[in-house]
Design brief:
Blueprint (H helix, E strand, L loop, with lengths): L10 E4 L5 H12 L3 E6 L2 H11 L6 E5 L5 H15 L4 E4 L14 H29 L2 E7 L10 H20 L6 E7 L9 E3 L5 E3 L8 H14 L3 E3 L2 H12 L1 H19 L1
Parallel strand pairs: 1-2, 1-4, 2-3, 4-5, 5-6, 6-9
Antiparallel strand pairs: 7-8
Length: 270
């Protein structure tokens, strides 16, 4: 990737940016000259992230708050406009993972996953839309291959990520002619922070332990490239592209293969 300042003077909001993919994305946009507004619920962690990225605080601002809360979202947008004069890019990155059988999910898990992954994307977009229109900017939605088809034990996560496709597709039509770019990025199995946790079926926190085929830097670069090139839909990794292709061409075969793999895995787990 060329070392340039093609986002110099532009302002980027990134939700869920106090660590992980959001943090790496913030770092990359800063390298490309952008002003970056960080967001997260943990104020202390958010402030540490901002100071690590930009010790002098010249091109960063942090706004702690819950993206499921309309008042917090309104404050995120208003403080960004007050600090930097407008908004060029909104990256909807914050999300919540879960694991567990659908028929065993506690009600609070349903509420948390749906509200974080759908409401937490919808509210920032709604609040920022007018400012982004003024600059003919970009709305970037970070989704997952789980949003392509349903998978066992992550049903609600899949459902919430599928909803993001509907939001993106609707916005492509509604914002046509405004000059606003809307992109959705389908991430595969991405690297997590060591202390990353997800929700179990009963609502308890579970430590994430898994292999990955994309680093956090890989995802950050994909976000940057998609926004810069103003592409609508991007699927990461060759396995990801293969999954999407098989899903569209042979959905029944893919369902059979996934079910068979699950049965094999269950036997080995006994």
């Amino acid at each position: 990737m060329k070392n340039n300042l093609d986002f110099a003077g532009k302002t980027v909001i990134i939700t869920g940016s106090n660590r992980g993919i959001g943090y790496k994305t913030a770092s990359l946009f800063l390298q490309r000259g952008a002003n970056v507004v960080l967001n997260g619920r943990n104020a202390d962690r958010l402030d540490r992230a901002r100071r690590n990225l930009d010790p002098e605080g010249r091109r960063t601002h942090s706004v702690s708050g819950d993206i499921r809360n309309p008042d917090d979202v309104s404050r995120l947008i208003s403080e960004t406009v007050e600090r930097f004069g407008g908004i060029d890019v909104l990256v909807c990155n914050a999300g919540l993972m879960m694991r567990g059988r659908f028929d065993e999910l506690a009600p609070q898990v349903v509420d948390s996953v749906i509200s974080t992954n759908i409401v937490g994307v919808a509210l920032p977009i709604i609040a920022a839309a007018d400012e982004i229109k003024k600059r003919k900017g970009s709305i970037e939605i970070i989704s997952s291959l789980a949003g392509v088809r349903g998978m066992p034990h992550i049903s609600l996560y899949c459902a919430s990520k599928m909803a993001l496709t509907a939001i993106a597709e609707s916005l492509w039509i509604e914002l046509a002619g405004t000059g606003v770019h809307v992109g959705i990025l389908y991430v595969g199995i991405a690297e997590n922070d060591p202390d990353k946790q997800l929700l179990g079926a009963d609502g308890s926190n579970i430590q994430v332990t898994r292999s990955f085929n994309s680093t956090q830097e890989d995802v950050a670069k994909a976000v940057y490239k998609q926004v810069r090139r103003r592409r609508r839909r991007v699927v990461m990794t060759l396995p990801g592209k293969a999954l999407v292709t098989v899903h569209w061409l042979m959905p029944g075969v893919l369902t059979y293969l996934i079910a068979k793999l699950q049965r094999i895995s269950a036997r080995f787990a006994r």
